[in-house]
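> Could you send the XdhC/CoxI family protein prediction when you get a chance?

Sure thing. Input:
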Amino acid sequence: MRDVLDELLSVWRAGDTAGLASVVRTMKSAPRAPGAALVVSPDGTVAGSVSGGCVEAAVYELAREVVETGRPQLRRYGITDDDAFAVGLTCGGIIDIFAEPLSRATFPQLGAVAEDIAAHRPTAVATVISHPDVEWVGRRLVVGEASAAGSLGSTRADDAVADDVRGLLAAGRTAVLTYGPDGQRQGEGMEVFVASHAPRPRMIVFGAIDFAAALTRQGALLGYRVTVCDARPVFATPTRFPAADEVVVDWPDRYLAGQQASGAIDARTVICVLTHDPKFDVPVLAVALRLPRIGYVGAMGSRQTHLDRLDRLREVGLTDSETRRLSSPIGLDLGARTPEETAVSIVAEIIARRWGGGGRPLAEVDTRIHHDASEIAAVIGVDSAIDVR
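Output:
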């Protein structure tokens, strides 16, 4: 929903009704992830995408239909469905689409959700997409870290779902939860789609050099909130790093320790140390590699620089298990030479680390392109009631 939020708000604020179609579940090689959305405005204009083009026309008609009838629908498109295959999901994937009419009446909390997203406050929208009682379908609960607004249909269901949603929100994950009709955890019959809108993950780049400028552009492209930090004010200027969200003049280790103390570092944060100067990178790596939760720590330098850096890190007390968390030399082996190519190799390694990719050409890999739900569930620590495909 985040990608089409501006269009939704425009219709919502005007007091009109839009058709919102969201990907709630994917199987096999689906082109878009859960949470991808398409919105049809009252004048027929479209924003967003649910399939990269495969079934957009059919979903467009579905979105218009739910506005006309006022009834949400859950519909599956995929190669196992003859009708859906006829409209063109030729990638071999399967997607479940939930389409609903969206207005001030059906989603009074949308304005507050938009404010939370703009302020980087974690918020999640839990919507009933399947239930034995059709009156429950489309009901929603908006869940924050310490608040909940709206109702799914009963206090029992609200309490159970809100508790589970906060777990997903902490991990920044979007998923489908399954319960009994009244929120029973061991039951079946009710499915709830949870769209988590956690703050953007952070990329912290230490070293205000030309490679950092290229990396900030790549980080921004991938949706990271990018910070560049360097102790040298002549180099650490916003003008040199226009793609960065912030440029900080501070000693790297002091800045990182302060960010950790303030709770601004989480398991999605990636740290890239590009200074390759021992007086900067050894102290900041000593902090980074001891963080209890971190998504990625990489450091630039030649292989000889890497070996020298390891010796220095051991001298300041880091253990072998701590230094093994370091990706150095940073990036995948792409043969990169320019700052821009090097930045691509770095973010490629970050992506591979996040999703468990091996970094090999897909043409040489026999397994499925996207890793399955059980692997992702193992990483984020959810239980079997949660469908994270």
